Amino acid sequence: MIYFNSGDELLLVLEALSNQQRLKIIAVLSEGKQYVSQLARELGISRPLLYLHLQKLEEAKLVSSDMEILESGKAAKYYMLNPVQFEINEQMIHALAPSLTMKKKN
Amino acid sequence: MIYFNSGDELLLVLEALSNQQRLKIIAVLSEGKQYVSQLARELGISRPLLYLHLQKLEEAKLVSSDMEILESGKAAKYYMLNPVQFEINEQMIHALAPSLTMKKKN
DNA sequence: ATCATATGTAATGATTTTATTACAGGTAAT
DNA sequence: ATTACCTGTAATAAAATCATTACATATGAT
């Protein structure tokens, strides 16, 4: 279960989830870990773009990664889904809103 | 409680929630209905921008509006929060991902 | 050596989102 | 009729996000 300690943390997760591609990535990874190139093929998107999406998911701590060796002997970067489960309601938004820092993003 | 009938519906809500200003709007409206001009003053943002945010929240069915007459006699557009409560987990994302239509937005 | 398949990232471009300024129109009170 | 509010939107600008192309590097197999 995911708990949010600040508005910024909540927002980070919501932003990570508010994209079709990233939702699809989560859907695929929910079936098991996968490495980047294979994942890009399955989703039909370019690898650089996939990196970008994975980075956002990783920043929100929704996925993790590690390097593994394929049967072929080549190194591959595997991504796996962290447990994703949380509730949203107006009380929590009200409670966390004050800790939203009005950032301008880099 | 909010239920999602498709990936697109889920995404619409997530997109509506993935913005600081809109989270703050929800926080303010959770304390009670408010009219646009007053809300803009409270949030310290321009009215045209607020309209844009409110429109997104309304499309996601998170808020509703109606015209009312102020004590002063002037017409005001009041916005109020609809019940916001739902759960997110990987099973539902997996189930709804196939019904994500890869849109290019207008 | 060449091919096939991996990772990783720089540079660039296209599109969307966010935000401001500037209008036009309405009602009520002084 | 001027002031002080309100709604509503067009036009534009600024910033962030999304997406592609191109390249460098590495490993194993033929």
Automatic annotation (TrEMBL), chains A, B:
Domain HTH arsR-type: 12-94
Keywords attached to this entry: DNA-binding
Pfam families documented for this protein: HTH_5
SMART domains: HTH_ARSR
Domain of life: Bacteria
Gene3D superfamilies: Winged helix-like DNA-binding domain superfamily/Winged helix DNA-binding domain (1.10.10.10)
Signal sequence bounds: none
DNA-binding listed as a keyword: yes
Protein name: Winged helix-turn-helix transcriptional regulator
